[in-house]
Amino acid sequence: MMQDKQYLMIPGPTPVPPSVVAAMSRPMIGHRSEDFAALHRRIQEKIRQVFQTKEDVFILTNSGTGGLETAIANVVSPGDRVLALITGNFGERFTKIARAYGAEVDEVSFGWGKDVDLSVVREKLAGNPGYKAVLATQNETSTGVLNDIAGIGALVAETPALLLVDGVSGVGGIEIRMDEWHVDILVTASQKAMMLPPGLAMIGVSSRAWEVIEKNRAPRFYFSLPAARKSLEKWNTAYTPNVALFQGLDAALDMMMNEGMENVYARHRLLARAVRAAVRALGLEPLAADHCASPTVTAVRSPEGLGADDIRKVLKEELGITFAGGQGILKGKIFRIAHMGFAGKMDVILGIGGLEMALARLGYPVELGAGVRAAQEVFLGRNE
Amino acid sequence: MMQDKQYLMIPGPTPVPPSVVAAMSRPMIGHRSEDFAALHRRIQEKIRQVFQTKEDVFILTNSGTGGLETAIANVVSPGDRVLALITGNFGERFTKIARAYGAEVDEVSFGWGKDVDLSVVREKLAGNPGYKAVLATQNETSTGVLNDIAGIGALVAETPALLLVDGVSGVGGIEIRMDEWHVDILVTASQKAMMLPPGLAMIGVSSRAWEVIEKNRAPRFYFSLPAARKSLEKWNTAYTPNVALFQGLDAALDMMMNEGMENVYARHRLLARAVRAAVRALGLEPLAADHCASPTVTAVRSPEGLGADDIRKVLKEELGITFAGGQGILKGKIFRIAHMGFAGKMDVILGIGGLEMALARLGYPVELGAGVRAAQEVFLGRNE
């Protein structure tokens, strides 16, 4: 196996398209130059379409967790009550950040592999009117579960609480309508459906959120949204931005605009349907139920008697394919196949074809080609 | 379909590995510098192992046809008799070049899809003792046929004629032993099994060939091998070389040395076996018989009533996969799948998975997954 022949199918970092690599390889420009201002302005016009917002979207030089901390640091003051809707590892991380800023967090865990139950949210909001914020995850990367942000948003909008959404592994690949769905702060990061290397977080902020942010007294400097807003007025950034990633983001957004966001979303849904049909044809079962299946990543339960990490090891060492493993309580029990960002039909065929070989190599009674056929049938529209 | 998502499966140019792209992206160096001399020396040591020769191998800045013309221009004088062993389009091209230099060419065509018949060569050589050179093609790219260069070499070595071999789509992916097999001039090019973009030809020259080259009176300047040899003594080139491709060649040769040439050859043979098993499982037939099947490219007859170029069009437009079409008399009748250079198992799975979908889309009664399964069985060692 050639070392250079690698297929990265993890939920971030995801493969970077050649045209984005080319844009990132362009000469450096000064971040206080007119060239940078023009670049920043182009990005802003396009990323608002991805977020479906009329508000500013700030491009911050840190990874997704830095983006989530930015949301918390600007909203939460010590002693504030926060409702956390948890469906896996990243819901738990959002909660930890809120606690680090002194929030009194009311945690509701829906179980790993399950989505947020809106009736529970309704009950919580009715019984506790004092929430400063509600934390939700659009796409729970650790379980491949998609939560109903529109539904959560409609409930939270009836209260004074702000809705803070972790959209890290969803935005750019899964539909989100920040304004229409009443999302007050929406965070995403570069290395997932946005098709870039890691290093940028993007954060959209509603006018309702700004009222809270301006009054907030928590310590913040690098993560200051008011500083970011002041700089954006001149198409600037408060601190030195990752210029190469801005150049790449401009190109990645061009690709999205050319494809059309509705087509981008439909592509991800199609890939998820194909992966789910394929693993079922091999006798395996996706962790998430169909009604809450993530369009960008599919978690699959390892078959009885076979360790998920053994499958991943064969895939990586013999075929150069990398699937993600399970996190937390799911470690060793699931593997996760990403179809996120720069992903197409042939990635699914390749990934499933590899999975079949790995299962066969490990002695699992697999019908070779059966998973590929199921995916092909989805792509050919034969199973509808 | 995303424009950036492309799978190039043609017999040159072939995909370029990331480490080779990185090497080509290094800063330019002067071609009369010590850095270049060191680079040239490193390349020379490695490429002799690929050619299996103790002789000099010249790296020339032109494409494969320029390399073939270099061979002819330095050997053939007007009126010289030449025996051309033709098995397809590239055998014909070699012949045309010889004619352009005034050779009287004795053409023997074995038919498109067939290999060179050694008994015919033996007969020809016995009956015509005056050949200055014999022209042969190692791997006929247009038909996916591998010729027996060892066998041809043993026959030609018993005569005063030089054996000139077009190894363009073979060298680096298919075993060749220049010295042991009595090849006097061996030509290849960068964009095939050597894993580089087009732009370089490589040419190895035997001591027997040098005796003829030194006496040759045909006009030559850029293509002068004596000029190339004089420059190589100082690890130089006669004229400005493509420096970036030299940097890339250094990296590509490192990849080959790391994998080991025997492993490189075994990999190509394995991929060819898998492709042939796969297309047969779909009811299609390779053009070349098993005994002369090319390890680097497989030509496949289009099924009855289906145009090869219609299949290629669906593959390209709907899935981003490019197969090559037929050339000359085979235009529209075959398609050609390359598994050449930077190619691995998953490329075969992907290409066959795509072929199945294209055939289905065109109404051909294909069992989805059957070709993929046949390839998987080859890779898993289940069909031996």
From TrEMBL, chains A, B:
One example of a Gene Ontology biological process annotation: glycine biosynthetic process, by transamination of glyoxylate
Keyword Transferase: yes
Annotated substrate binding sites: 336
Domain of life: Bacteria
Gene3D superfamilies from the UniProt entry: Aspartate Aminotransferase, domain 1, Type I PLP-dependent aspartate aminotransferase-like (Major domain)
Cofactor(s) listed: pyridoxal 5'-phosphate
Modified residues (N6-(pyridoxal phosphate)lysine): 192
GO molecular function: alanine-glyoxylate transaminase activity; L-serine-pyruvate transaminase activity
InterPro entries per record: Aminotrans_V_dom, Aminotrans_V_PyrdxlP_BS, PyrdxlP-dep_Trfase, PyrdxlP-dep_Trfase_major, PyrdxlP-dep_Trfase_small, SP_NH2Trfase/AEP_transaminase
Presence of the UniProt keyword Lipid biosynthesis in the record: no
Domain Aminotransferase class V: 7-327
One Pfam short name: Aminotran_5
Annotated PROSITE patterns: AA_TRANSFER_CLASS_5
The entry's keywords: Aminotransferase, Pyridoxal phosphate, Transferase
Family the entry assigns: Belongs to the class-V pyridoxal-phosphate-dependent aminotransferase family.
Name of the protein described by the UniProt record: Aminotransferase class V-fold PLP-dependent enzyme
Organism: Desulfofundulus thermobenzoicus
Higher taxonomy: Bacteria, Bacillati, Bacillota, Clostridia, Eubacteriales
